[in-house]
Design brief:
The complex is a heterodimer of chains A (about 350) and B (about 120).
Chain A lengths: L4 H30 L11 E7 L2 E6 L11 E5 L17 H7 L3 E6 L12 H20 L4 E6 L1 H12 L4 E7 L11 H7 L12 E2 L1 H10 L7 H11 L4 H14 L5 E2 H11 L5 H4 L3 E2 L2 E2 L9 E6 L7 H5 L1 H4 L4 E5 L5 H4 L4 H12 L6
Parallel strand pairs in A: 3-4, 3-5, 5-6, 6-11, 11-12
Antiparallel strand pairs in A: 1-2, 2-4, 7-8, 9-10
Helix pairs in contact in A: 3-4
Chain B lengths: L11 H25 L1 H10 L24 H47 L1
Helix pairs in contact in B: 1-2
The chains are: A alpha/beta (about 350), B mainly alpha (about 120).
């Protein structure tokens, strides 16, 4: 049976619409790819006030280029990802928001480890880089105690630091920080279930960025297949360019992971992972020192995210079992969304309130 | 005065031809960007992997055997380098302690000076 002319025209019209839509997507993609993007730096003006190995301690500056004089707040991000998620974009910067509220904000940028840094362990980070960052902040401000905001693994480092040196911490905020390693989900639990051999403490390697990335991808089904990623991007190209620029900024954080020191990962897994669960069991150590969480007597705010696949909320909320005075707050959203997504304002507001309870006037 | 005739709507075939020309222009902008902007190729390569990552290539697994084998000498050198980083930290600790002592001494001097002025 031959096609009638109106039928053929309808088919051609449909194909024409499809062609126009595909072309519009490609034109939008070209516009996004040729617009200067976010290249992995923080959004807020900052001065480097301390350097050690790959660490840069940044101090945020105000609009006139001067440091603020309010109470000091040190942000500690995870050393296995880029720091700038805490200072993403003007208007979408957690650290910038806290600074604008009058606090003197510092961010520890752990940088990108080199091959020799594969020997870095918990003691190097907690009793070395974090402790000297706190000392520098104290020296610059004349304060004896600082507020600390730790994110993800940076929260673990901050909690361990607070247990070692409680007299130097005024208030502690732990964002999506796993405390109970036996809770199902999360990176170490997935590694445990998959029977991965894990990293060697004695003969560590620098774990390549692509491997670190693959662990995160294991936790979000679908994101690890090329086909699904391309199809997802193709669908997104219907969005407005402003929205796509946001997606690009986030991709520049999510897809640009850093290699990880194998010794640090081996130690974290061996001490705090499933089955050992040293934070909950009270067997946590730094070097040869046993940690006593009863020493963490300062006010603590722990924030979990309802849809967090990296640090499942139950494992975060368990902080109250070892630090009973901790206030637990659970937010809607995922691991990254609550810090830098569109719903992050709730976290920023509560953090400023919590830190401000100790006084913002300095 | 004779009325101007409204131009008839283009036929489907005419619109298809116009669309083909638009495609040619779109492809030309890509070729132009590839020729003029070195980073565009990296960004386009990332997009073809489903990522809008800017500034650097999407992380990929190096081909087997691409990494240079590490010798015992490399390993020792890395250990020495890392030990140097640890010493760097200890020196910074010493500097911070000296600064702290200096600041305290300054404060004490200031206080005793004030007392003398008053006395």
């Amino acid at each position: 049976m031959s096609e009638t002319e109106p039928e053929r025209d309808r088919e051609l019209e449909a194909l024409l619409a499809l062609s126009r839509r595909g072309r519009a997507k490609l034109e939008r993609l070209h516009e996004i790819l040729t617009t200067p993007g976010h290249y992995g730096t923080g959004a807020s003006p900052a001065a480097v006030v301390y350097r050690e190995n790959k660490l840069r301690l940044l101090r945020l500056l105000d609009e006139s280029g001067k440091p603020r004089s309010g109470p000091p707040v040190l942000f500690v991000p995870a050393p296995v990802s880029r720091y700038f998620i805490l200072d993403l974009l003007p208007g979408r910067s957690f650290a910038g928001h806290v600074g604008a509220a009058g606090f003197d904000v510092y961010i520890a940028d752990f940088g990108t480890p080199s091959r020799e840094d594969r020997f870095a362990d918990l003691e190097y980070y907690v009793d070395g880089l974090v402790r000297r960052s706190v000392r520098t902040v104290c020296a610059l401000t004349g304060e004896s105690r600082v507020n600390i905001v730790g994110y993800c693994l940076g929260g673990t480092l901050s909690l361990l630091y607070a247990a070692l040196y409680p007299d130097t911490v005024k208030r502690l905020v732990l964002l999506t920080t796993t405390v109970d390693g036996d809770v199902e989900g999360g990176i170490s639990w997935v590694a445990h279930k998959m029977g991965l051999a894990g990293e060697s403490y004695d003969e560590p390697r620098l774990v390549p960025a692509v491997e670190v990335k693959s662990w995160f991808e294991m936790l979000s089904p679908g994101s690890n297949s090329l086909t699904s990623r391309v199809s997802d991007l193709w669908d997104r190209l219907d969005d407005a360019p402003e929205r796509l620029r946001d997606v690009r900024t986030m991709a520049t954080w999510v897809d640009d992971v850093v290699p990880a020191p194998g010794r640090l990962l081996a130690e974290l897994y061996k001490k705090f992972g499933p089955g050992r669960n040293g934070l909950m069991a009270g067997t946590a150590t730094i070097g040869d020192r046993v940690l006593d969480f009863a020493a963490v007597s300062m006010p603590v705010l722990a924030v979990s995210a309802e849809k967090d696949t990296i640090s499942p909320p139950a494992g975060v909320d368990a902080i109250v079992k070892i630090v009973p005075q901790a206030e637990v707050m659970r937010l809607q959203g995922g691991h990254v969304g609550i810090v830098a997504g569109r719903a992050a304002a709730a976290l920023w507001k509560r953090t400023v309130e919590f830190l401000g309870s100790g006084g913002v006037s300095g | 005065m004779a009325e101007e005739k409204p131009s008839p709507d283009p036929t489907v075939v005419e619109r298809w031809l116009a669309e083909q020309q638009q495609w040619q222009r779109t492809v030309a902008t890509y070729i132009d960007s590839l020729a003029k902007n070195d980073e565009f190729l990296v960004h386009l390569g990332n997009a073809m992997r489903g990522s809008l990552l800017a500034g650097k290539p999407y992380p990929t697994q190096p081909p087997p055997g691409a990494a240079s084998p590490q010798t015992q000498a490399d390993d020792r050198l890395d250990q020495v380098l890392f030990t140097l980083h640890k010493i760097e930290g200890q020196i910074e600790d010493l500097r911070l302690t000296l600064d702290d002592l200096g600041a305290r001494k300054g404060k004490k001097k200031g206080k005793s000076g004030k007392r003398k002025d008053r006395g």
